[in-house]
Amino acid sequence: MALAFALGMSSCAVRQVSHIPPPQISAPALTASAADLVKDLNGWSAKVDTLEGVVRFHTSATFKRAGITKEYHVIRGYILLKKPSMIRIQGQAPVVRTEIFDMVSDGRQFRLSIPPKNLFLIGRDNYRGPRKPGLENLRPQHVLEALLIPPVEPTEEYFVEEDDRGGRSYYVLTVVKPGVDRALKLARKIWFDRADLRVARAEIYGAGGRLEEDVTYSNYGDFQGISYPSDIKLRRPEEGYRLSIQFQKIIFNEEISPEKFELPAPANAKIIQLNAVKLREAPSDR
User: Fold this and answer.
1) With helix as H, strand as E and coil as C, how does 101-166 read?
2) pLDDT value for 14
3) Structure pTM?
4) Sign (positive/negative) of CA torsion 84, 199, 163, 213?
5) C-beta neighbour count of 205 within 10 angstroms
6) For residues 254 and 66, is the Cβ–Cβ distance under 8 A?
7) Is-contact 198 220, C-beta < 8 A?
8) pLDDT tens-digit profile of 134-158?
9) Is 254 helix (H, G, I), strand (E, B) or coil?
10) How many CB atoms lie within 10 A of CB 260?
11) Nearest-CA neighbor of 186 among 209, 203, 156, 211?
């Protein structure tokens, strides 16, 4: 009886038909030669002389020895940039908009103000010292290298290879420099998404082929005729920090006065000189 009832219910069941959407077909990957990629990269790089941006930052810093990771909330910020090497970056706390950090670089030295800690750091752009778990690891030149991908110089050699990751196809342009005894030095790798041939990633290498900086680019938009990513994520393995930059507004190639790249030390800040050789500017800030 129970079986008959069950069979009867089965015979009266309403048939449901599910329509499975057809699989999406990806657009065919674009093709380009190594020379084409270099030409496009150099042309894109040449279009930018100055940049003014309103951004949102998110940072995290890791101190491996102590096993400490510091996460900072999304903060509002401003970026001023002028080729070849001038940059200023400010970060403010949300809502109250008090200053969290302010830093500048002229390509030779950086100056970093951290008002919450009453610190003012001065050092050479290539300074490497003991790493601390905090904003002290930030360097404006690191951000400059991420925002402005330099052109491939005539003295540099390069080659291209294909790579597939995450269902996407890429060209990887590897740039090398001449070294000693016919050895080549790895300088950087630039990844082009073959869906549109835009730069998706840039890796910068240091001595011994060590990865110094890893940057990803996404959400490109048109800004005054310049194609530029709205989202940039920067990772510095040696310094142990990550920085996410989301542009809210970008203005290209308008004149920026030189004084906007000046950053004097606050009157009561503790000035820390990070180089063995003192810089002449430090005493005058007092």
Assistant:
1) EEEEECCCEEEEEEHHHCEEEEEECCCCCCCCCCHHHCCHHHHHHHHCCCCCCCCCEEEEEEEEEC
2) 45
3) 0.82
4) positive
5) 18
6) no
7) yes
8) 566 778 999 999 999 999 998 899 9
9) coil
10) 13
11) 209
Amino acid in position 179: G
pLDDT tens digits for 259-279? 999 999 999 899 999 874 444
Per-residue tokens: 276: 């063995």
DSSP β-ladder status, 119-124 and 270-273: parallel
Alpha-carbon span 229 to 133, nearest angstrom: 29
Average pLDDT estimate for 168-190: 92
pLDDT of residue 181: 82
Whether the per-residue pLDDT at 67 is higher than 80: the answer is no
Take residue 227 and report the two structure tokens written for it: 């194609």
Q: Is 26 exposed, middle or buried (0-12, 13-18, 19+ CB in 10 A)?
A: exposed
Point out which residues pair with 246 in neighbouring strands: 56, 231
Distance CA 202, CA 219 (A): 15
SS3 call for 198: strand
As to burial, measured by CB atoms within 10 angstroms (0-12 exposed, 13-18 middle, 19+ buried), residue 172 is middle
Confidence at residue 173, expressed as pLDDT on a 0 to 100 scale: 98
Residue 44 dihedral angles phi and psi, to the nearest 5°:
-65, -40
Annotate 70-89 with b (16+ C-beta within 10 A) or e (fewer): eebeebbbebbbbeeebbbb
Which amino acid belongs to residue 133? P
CA distance 122 to 265: 10
Contact indicator for 158, 174 with CB cutoff of 8 Å: yes
